[in-house]
Amino acid sequence: MAKPAQGTKYRGSIHDFPDFDPSRDAEALYTAMKGFGSDKEAILELITSRSNRQRQEICQSYKSLYGKDLMADLKSEISGDLARLILGLMMPPAHYDAKQLKKAMEGAGTDEKALIEILATRTNAEIRAICEAYKEDYHKSLEDALSSDTSGHFKRILVSLATGNREEGGEDRDQAREDAQVAAEILEIADTPSGDKTSLETRFMTILCTRSYQHLRRVFQEFVKMTNYDVEHTIKKEMSGDVRDVFVAIVQSVKNKPLFFADKLYKSMKGAGTDEKTLTRIMISRSEIDLLNIRREFIEKYDKSLHQAIEGDTSGDFLKALLAICGGED
Fold first, then answer.
1. CA-to-CA distance for 310 and 228, rounded, in angstroms?
2. Model's pTM, two decimal places?
3. Example GO molecular function term (predicted)?
4. First and final CA of the chain: distance in angstroms?
5. Residues 6+ apart with CB under 8 A from 325
6. Are 208 and 253 in contact, with CB atoms under 8 Å apart?
7. Of the candidates 214, 207, 167, 168, the residue with the CA atom closest to the CA atom of residue 5
């Protein structure tokens, strides 16, 4: 059972750059892109060593110095995986997440994994900022987008998560026992089935989507006491499809969020091909939040560092940029 993240200090790998001068950086980027062929290394070195807040200031300076849009210029100079990474780093976090959600719902198929990864792990404040960014960028509410792209119980869970309305307080022991009982009933290991399946499912959803992290940790402990089973293991066994996947993601995020991301990074690089989209998305979105914690969980669980995994699985400028975000060998 993973250690709950109480009292753990979350730390990103990217921080504000000291002696920051946005005009100087804007000039450096302009020079790197001038003439024939761009100096990709200079571009990636500069952008990966500035915080997101600083990158926004560089965009402003670039516009006032040259009357041009830095994002558009970068887009015309770099392409492929590197472009996705660098342009992603340049976006404010809420707008980046909004774009990833939009992409996950575009076209024929839905990328449920991406929807789950984002919506099951973001804080209330992050979710609310994403909803605002989504509306601003796509003139449609995130809720409407989710509703038209997913269905059934899975849709209801995502819409609930997208309200950013999770309780923030501590635990309530009596309530936790009741919640654990509901979980035991829905997962079919309690002796006393009460009420019909649908209302139970709804109650279980309410518990996982709206209770505070601290309270849910208590619920999971009560669940073990009551049933001798681990709630995550039981969900995996008793449920199926997208509903199972989103519930498992919530439980893992509550237990240990950096470990959740470490697992996803490992899977993105395991086996024959690389899932660059997931790798890029997590490296960008966690770079200023908890990437150092993710690195620690990664090496503890997989006996190799995130740095080594990235080195063994990617190449070229994309590799250099990822390692710069990773911020060192463990």
1. 38
2. 0.94
3. calcium ion binding
4. 23
5. 13, 14, 48, 85, 89, 283, 284, 287, 291
6. no
7. 214
- DSSP 8-class letter at 290: T
Query: CA-based angle 47:275:303, to the nearest 5?
Result: 85
HSE-CB at 204 with a 13 A cutoff on CA atoms is 30
Q: CB neighbours of 229 closer than 8 A, spacing ≥ 6?
A: 187, 189, 223
Q: What three-state secondary structure class fits 11? A: coil
Q: Which two tokens stand for residue 125?
A: 């404040």
* DSSP characters over 182-202: HHHHHTT--S---S-HHHHHH
Print the SS3 string covering 73-111.
Answer: HHHHHCCHHHHHHHHHHHCCHHHHHHHHHHHHHCCCCCC
- CB-count burial class (<10 Å; 0-12, 13-18, 19+) for 221: middle
User: For the chain, how long is the longest CA-to-CA vector?
Assistant: 74
Residue count of the chain, please give it: 330
∠ CA(33), CA(79), CA(325), 5° rounding? Answer: 85
CB of 187 closer than 8 Å to CB of 235: yes
pLDDT (tens digit, 9 = 90+) per residue, 2-42? 444 455 789 999 999 999 999 999 999 999 998 777 899 99
pLDDT in tens, 160-207: 999 999 999 999 999 999 999 999 988 876 555 555 667 778 899 999
Query: In the 8-state DSSP scheme, what is residue 10?
Result: P
Tell me what pLDDT residue 1 has.
43
